[in-house]
Amino acid sequence: MKLNAGTLVTMNDEREVREEAHVVVEDGEIVEIADGHASGEDVVDATDEVVIPGLVNCHTHMYALPIRGAPLTVSPQSFYEALVDIWWEVDEAFTMEDARLSSLGSCAEMLEAGVTTFCDNYSGPNTLPGALDAVAEGVAQTPIRGMITFETTARNSEEEAFDGIEENQRFIRDGESEYDRIEGHYCLHTLFTNTEPVVEECASRATDDDRPIQIHLEEGLVDVHKSIEEYGMRPVPALESMGFFDADVIAAHCVHSTDREIEILAEHDVGVAHNPYSNVNNAVGIANVEKMEEEDLTIGIGDDGWDPDMFETMRTAVGIHKLKKNNPSGFDMAKALEWATIGSAEVLGMEDAVGSIEPGKRADFVTLDLGPNPVLPGSAPYYVVSAASRGDVTRTIVDGEVVYERGGRVRGVDDEDLQAVGEASEALWDRL
Fold first, then answer.
1. What dotted CATH number matches 2-53+356-405?
2. Coil, helix or strand for 81?
């Protein structure tokens, strides 16, 4: 397969942008990037379009899809109330079929919006054991690549938390081998919804299996207050004292992390999954990405299950960080595209395979029709972030195969599947 590009935004180390180039792919891997346009039957023609790497969503919750449009009667006044009144009720109501269909529907949406790699956290205590098999079945119906996990929580009981840890290890050791593009990992919901023995056991298992752990870290102030109450210190030093950072950790949010806590995260090479759109929706605050960058923390970007359009998530990042400084030039817009590609890939430990367009990596691409204006190499990344949306995605390509074209369906998904997703959502609303 060869891909002709009008403008090729590589996101390689030099952040190179090339005009009138083509990419050569063999067995799903990029083998060459050359000047000029290729010809032949195996050419995908994007000569009038912008080509970017497949987007990487480094923190999502696919099981959030069924709640869109739900006739909820609660009006939470805080992040903690939103957890208690909405999300924990949803968790308890989920079935195996909900797990499968929400994953299927979410993966179809992500591919339509140019996301080719994701990292998910699923929570449904009444679907244990076997929950991740249902999630994986939904994911595998599509051609996307992803990391999945069960979200460990002791909010109901410590026993339930250990069941969640066991589910993750079971899938890693016995389940994931059935899938080409799906890997398991570990997850702690938060420090405040778990206990010290659970934290220590999760870290131990993740280290043994050489897998990362995701955690929602200081998303809301409840995490901070509960940690001080229980351990006499804030969440990051508390987790450090438990040996949590001996594992490879992906910390989502970090909205309320202090400068010293960010320094501790940097000392342990923690990757940060920034979720700007979610943080706005939950009104929790704005993460101090400036301090994170000062400490050389790796930052990626996720949608936290809120918005299937990662371009909107990128624009939200631009907006909130400019607004925080009251400066329209206070944030480099191209940084958001970096976070959504190579940054997220590095957070997930997948930078050798995805996140940029260069020889040796998997052939994951997104082609964009940005309209009649010229696309100049110097401004192309800015143009993508400021103007693109999921509606501008003309093709999504995974491993050198076109798996979605605008106006059609994602490969492996049909109208009947999507109808089933909607019907399951409506049934879930009735149970809630």
1. 2.30.40.10
2. helix
pLDDT tens track for 139-183? 999 999 999 999 999 999 999 999 999 999 999 999 999 999 999
Please name every residue paired with 291 in a beta bridge, in sequence order, or none if there are none: none
Q: What are the residues facing 148 on neighbouring strands?
A: 184
Q: To 10 degrees, the CA torsion angle through 60, 259, 288, 334?
A: -90
- Look at the block and give the residue holding tokens 């320094």: 263
Measured over the CA atoms of residue 135, residue 137, residue 142 and residue 147, the dihedral's sign is positive
Q: What is the pLDDT of residues 268-295, one digit of tens each?
A: 999 999 999 999 999 999 999 999 999 9
- CA nearest neighbour of 156 among 195, 129, 187: 195
Strand-by-strand arrangement of the 182-184 sheet: 55-60, 115-120, 145-148, 182-184
Give 71-122 pLDDT, tens digit per residue.
Answer: 999 999 999 999 999 999 999 999 999 999 999 999 999 999 999 999 999 9
* Residues across the chain: 432
DSSP 8-state symbol, 191: S
Report field, pTM of the whole predicted structure over 0.85: yes
Torsion of CA 384, 387, 391, 393, to 10 degrees: -20
The average confidence (pLDDT) of the chain is 97
Report domain extents, the chain: 2-53+356-405, 55-347
CA 76/CA 73 separation, integer angstroms: 10
Query: Are the CB atoms for 32 and 400 separated by under 8 Å?
Result: no
H helix or E strand, kind and range, residue 99? helix 96-112
| Topology (CATH level 3) of domain 55-347 | TIM Barrel (3.20.20)
Residue 370 backbone class (left: φ over 0; alpha: ψ -120 to 50; beta: rest): alpha
34 three-state secondary structure: strand
